Amino acid sequence: MASRRLALNLAQGLRGRAGGLSLPTRRGLATPHSSPAIKTETTTLKNGLTVATQYSPYAQTSTVGVWIDAGSRAETAETNGTAHFLEHLAFKGTSKRTQHQLELEIENMGGHLNAYTSRENTVYFAKALNEDVPQCVDILQDILQNSKLEESAIERERDVILRESEEVEKQVEEVVFDHLHATAYQGQSLGRTILGPRENIRDITRTELANYVKNNYTADRMVLAGAGGIPHQQLVEMADRYFSKLPSKSPETSAYALSKKKPDFIGSDVRIRDDTIPTANIAIAVEGASWSDPDYFTALVAQAIVGNYDKALGNAPHQGSKLSGIVHKNDLANSYMSFSTSYSDTGLWGIYLVTDKLGSVDDLVHFALREWSRLSSNVSEAEVERAKAQLKASILLALDGTTAVAEDIGRQIVNTGRRMSPGEIERVIDNITEKDVMEFANRRLWDQDIAISAVGSIEGLFDYARVRADMSRNF
């Protein structure tokens, strides 16, 4: 629709300039248009802070943000929830700006300021017009280095986070995946939730918040990423001006040491039966690939082969994968979603199943795991090519806009130390063959331990040993 509208506008413009006369039908020779190559530039400051940018000279806006190698995984059991709590306090005032001044400053420039916390990263970012980028960087460094962490703000946000926790507990998918991490990495930092247990939220003190900043917000664990109309050297100069006083290295605390230790994946299950929930909600996973694992993209292709399914969609009978065809034909599920979640040194590769056909839960699990077994021995070239095309499209479409590009730069560099360009990613995916997928499945899926998380009307889910036995099915 947009292209038709553009063509119409162009045609109207040409008619206007031609004074109503018909345009000549002869075409001129086309001339090639060369644009500067878009690349990611990186610079490391003396204190260890990495500055990374993708400069687009024609962009009118820019996104800048700080990606920190610290999330809930950098906490202890006693301080779990601190990183997320800090995210809430970031915009509540600094030693230079009150909360009102901060909000007014962003509003007056028409900018957007936000933050989020994950298990391994904390991110603060801003989007604004190019001329306002220096002001955005100043605000970012201020909230990172000078947040007041006032007791009154802490108490207000404590109530906000407790309400947020209640809302998350009502979202079954969130609950299932939190329990999946908890059972797969039980007793380890990666198994804890991002929000933390309610008792921690009630008890977190200003001292714990300040210590988290002191121990984790250091230059060697930060990336200042920019995308859009901000030249690399300009952002480097701003970083040198605003972030040069950051401590260069994190203290070697026990929490830091534990966060850098590869967690053990534990084959196990957790089940919360609640017959008031009309569906069975089940996640099953093996240990997957880390961000820097050679199997990372092969895992994504294998995930795309298993595919996704949603009965409510109009194209439900034609969603491409073999498993979706079986599920739809036999009406086994409301939906399913295959996933490949990566962390710095491990990952979870699996499937999330939702069904209200409570008498067919075992059939649904059986066919899902039978599909996993099939990946070890019988994958066609056609389905691999389909999966690769879908994967490349989803990766490239996800890079639409300066915020998405900045996110990609920051995430890749803070997790792997470098950024693969979209072109490099495309070439890697193109080189994956059906043999690579089968080898991956043989090593990572066939007869491997699984973690299971199930919530809802799950009486029909067989015991762990029965489900685990389906991981080595011969056809």
UniProtKB/TrEMBL annotation:
It comes from the Eukaryota. This is Metalloenzyme, LuxS/M16 peptidase-like protein. It comes from Chaetomium tenue. The lineage of its organism: Eukaryota, Fungi, Dikarya, Ascomycota, Pezizomycotina.
